[in-house]
Amino acid sequence: MKKPIIYLSTAALIAGALSTPLQAFAAEANEVNFTKEELIYTTIDRSGSVEDMYTTNVFEGSNLSLIKDFGDYEELRLLNTTHADLTSPSADESVIQTDENRVITQGKLQNRKLPWIFTFHYLLDGKEIDPEKSAGQSGTLEVEVNIQPSDESDEALMSYVDHYALQISTSMDLDTHFDLNSENGIVSTAGNHQQVQWTVLPGQLEPLTFTVDTTEFADFDWSINGAPLTLGIDKDLFDLSSFTEPLADLETGIQAVNDGSQSLFSGSTELNSGLERLLGGSQQVTNGASELYSGSQAFVSGTAQAFAKTKELENGLADLTDGSRQLQSAAGQLNQGSRQLAKQSEPFFDGLASVDQGVSDLTQALSDIESGAQQLTDRSKSLTDGSARVLDALKTLQEKVSLLTASFNKAAELADASQNIQSGMINLDMGIENIDQSIEEYQTKLKTSGLSPSDLADQNRAAKERLAALNEQLTKLQPLVEEGLLDEAVLTDLQTAINQTEQLTDANSQYIEGSQQVIEGIEGVVQPEGDLKAGSSQLVKQYQSFNEAVTTLIENLSSISETVEPLKQAIDSLVDQYGTLDEGVNQYTESTSQLSKGIQQATAATQALKTGASTLAANGSSVQSGLQRLAEGTAGLSSGSKELNNGVNAAHAGSLAFIDGLQTLHNSTRTLETGSRQLLVGTEALESGLQNAANGSDALVSGADQLASGTSELASQTSDLPDQTEEKIDKAVAEFSNEDYQVQSFMDDRNDQTENVQFVIQYRASDTDQASNKQTETTPQEPKSLWEKFLDLFR
């Protein structure tokens, strides 16, 4: 732990060090009681290197007689008496014989280390300078003193670093220096000089700094004193209640936070369970919406196929209409041609009747017959072409009527799809009602267990208030940290735990508010008066009407199918019978061709004509009778084709109405598909939101569990916080008092009578710097005594 710098006066430090109670030690040489104090006087340069080192040893006791001292001195001499004898039996041992009660010796040391290294840095207007080369300059001076252990591997030297306090000071002339400031030192004024001094506790090695403005810079003298830190601190001087009472409140608050975190964990568990049940209901709704969407897609596909077939039906009926018109036209032409044929064949048959009148009229009669035969041949092509067109039209009509019958058979599938969609809508409506009931049951259970969102929000708000109070109480502990009485890590851990708890309570507040909004939003749309429930109920009612219309349409189509079936059978029979008629027409046209050829032959050979005249007359009556029947048949065909054309026109008009109805139905199914898709997307979004809420609830349960564990551990660790604080204070006081520290001789660890070791370290500016500082003495000084010279070592 970083120890703060405590500022003490030099006089108090040395006086406290010199007032250490005398202890008795048995001298190894003569068993006489005496104690020893060592004063290490050292001069250093600006880099911290040792220039000269002396030690002054003070021996005190009654009946000293013989004193044995250990140490490697370059030279050693007595300072305060001539009634003593100093000898050195070996290089590192000296013996003093005396009858005095106090004996002081001074020895010079060589190649010895100080426990510390001191370095001095000067910056004038921001640039580092050499004081010896910058004397007399002006500007703003920044000075920094750095302290480091000289040898961390030397346990004896590190013992002084760990237990000795240092007092460092320097002074300057007020005539040439002003505006002296130091962040970590004490500035004081004595006469025409101003001084800055620091007291550095053991282990405190931060740089020492000050700034001063100078009009004539001169290097400074530095004085450094080191002595064991002995601070007699009595706990009774401090009223610890001002620290322990807030800690007791903090302990109570932590326990309250722990109780709240346990309740939060329990409530979050209940909330998580309710969200899981709500998520299950939303999944049922999503499944129903998915079935509705699938059914609506099948419905749209069915109506699209039906509508596509109606296009074919419309095209077929249009072709049928054209064919029936062509049939009617061809039948009319056939009737007209057969009538003309019967009328024009009358002279031929009259000629046959009078062929026996005489050969004289044969040439003229044959000429007339040849002319009539030629006309009959010319008309036969129109007759055969018209008959072929009638047969083709009848076959086309037969195909279209077959397609129409197949389309009517597909209508039953449309009715089944519509019925499935109605069932899906009813299931969806019931699922929405189940969600409403699940939400009501969930809210009832929350209220019964005292974990409603408002209660959780109140508990969370109360926990945040308690955390804020704990934060405020923690600020009262900061002085303890600054005084080194409380471990800063403990306060940091408490602060971190409270901050994390505050973040969790903030997240919990947002979650409670968000989950309540989600539940209220779901409840608002699934209640009987909500948009989702009202829309679903209205959709069920409207679709019932739509389904009835579809059923009625299918029934009408069924009746149309029953009407079309006899028409199909009649057309099939007509096609079969007309094929026979077409063959007779072809045979007739072939006979007329042969007749024309025979007449031509008769013209060439009247004798052959006369021979076959009786046969021709007999055959002519049969032909005349056939022509009469042909004229009557074509008249019936013309009448039937007209009725057929009227029926086809009526069927065409009905099919157009049917196609318009299917178009309307298809558009409605598309609207249904779009609505069901939106419903599915909405239910999937609802399920996703509930899943996210469930995941958040899981995270909340996990976080609440961790918080409960953390607050339990925090409550356990802070259950005796006031007592722990007092223990920390006692430990800190013990560290500063150095009660257990045993001073070791700097000269030799065999000097076990050593009670006190002090260091006086000085850095002296060069003579040139001192001359420029105008600190010359003009009054002659009297010669100093040996004791005054010794005292100067401490000044």
From TrEMBL:
Polar residues composition bias: residue spans: 768-782
Region feature Disordered, mapped onto this chain: 764-785
Signal peptide bounds: 1-26
InterPro entries: xxxLxxG_rpt (IPR023908)
UniProtKB keywords: Signal
Gene3D superfamilies: Methyl-accepting chemotaxis protein (1.10.287.950)
Protein name as annotated: X-X-X-Leu-X-X-Gly heptad repeat-containing protein
Protein's organism: Alkalibacterium gilvum
